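thread: overnight batch results

M.L. [08:02]
morning all. the overnight job finished for the chain we discussed friday. pasting input first so we're all looking at the same thing
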Amino acid sequence: MNPPPHPNRAAFAAAAARRAPEVVALTQRLTAIASPNPPGDVRAAAHEAADMLRALAPGAEISLHETDPQVTNLVARIRGAGPGRLLAYNGHLDTYPVNEALPWTVPPLGGLLRDGQLYGRGVADMKGGIAASMLAFALLAEYRHAWRGEALLTLAGDEESMGPLGTKWLLDNVPGLAQADGVIIGDAGSPSVLRFGEKGFVWIEIEAAGRASHGAHVHLGDNAIDRLRAALDAVAALRSMAPDAPAAVTAAIAAARAISEPLSGAGEAAVLGSVTVNIGRVEGGTSPNLVPAAARAACDIRLPVGVPSARLLAALHQGLDVLPGITWRALRCFEPNHTDPAASIVRGLHQVAEEVLRQPVAVNMRAGGSDARWFRMAGLPTVVYGPTPHNMGGADEWVSVAELEAIAKVHALAGFDFLNGENGAP
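M.L. [08:03]
and the structure it wrote out:
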């Protein structure tokens, strides 16, 4: 039996509903400040966010942390009525490049609002999600007498560059963050799907060396492209690796399929539970009548929960090291990561999302990566819950205003419940 709701919850929920439309103006202010990565200069965006938070949450402790000449991170902190849990909201300030050469029909930084849709670079990934978390943080500040513990808001400067100067730096340096009891991230996704984990990845580069000769005299040469093809066949064979995933993860992927696949595409469930290989670049040769002496390729290998990178790398050594003329190296490597679907932050946000949306919400893994991996690798229970991205990285990127308002309410109510211990132990 669930405990009775906190006596201030109804008033807090009413305030969240009343203030939810503010998320549009907050997103517009953030969108107006360009923060493309590359080049990765987020300084102006960080200072703008700090000014916004000073007005939104009077009394909050706000600090800016420069970790690179162009990367500035923001930390905001509020304390409740007494000791308790620590909840962190996280987001990233950087966006894909604006790229004015794309066929934009709206000002890329204008934050145009039209027919219930908000346009501009980064509105979906992820300045809308940041705005939702900022509004949730402001509501918690207004009602700090009604909950216990601490709430942190951390805005990182380099998620698109994998996060070493942003979220990773924050985890290593911000007091208390690495001990957070729960983390909420408003990165792009869908209000209909809460994400509790994501696949890992290994990027590799393969080089093949051969011996040049004329194409009419192939017996005098060794074709580097043929050798590369054999290597790529060995890499593609990794798709058959069977994961050893926890039963709760496998069950969640299966249960989410009916809701998640119509949004993310048929086949998502199979992708989430298997190794995938994308051969993204192949180079080699100069002319059809010359046997190439060199060739190379780059591959993106994604790992499901249950296939650690060490196992994948061992298989690569076994399959590639024996091939003539082949050398290879790993360019990037991150582990698959997940939070137990039964964790308090997952169950609590799931309940609130269904309460706000008044419809079933799926609990699922995420195919792509995010800064959530840094928190999960540090052992922190973490969920990703944000708006649906439309044209992300392309022209006329947009997000639904109704979704932004729903995300803001969910972030706020889930935070309030979590800090009041409404969902049991972390």
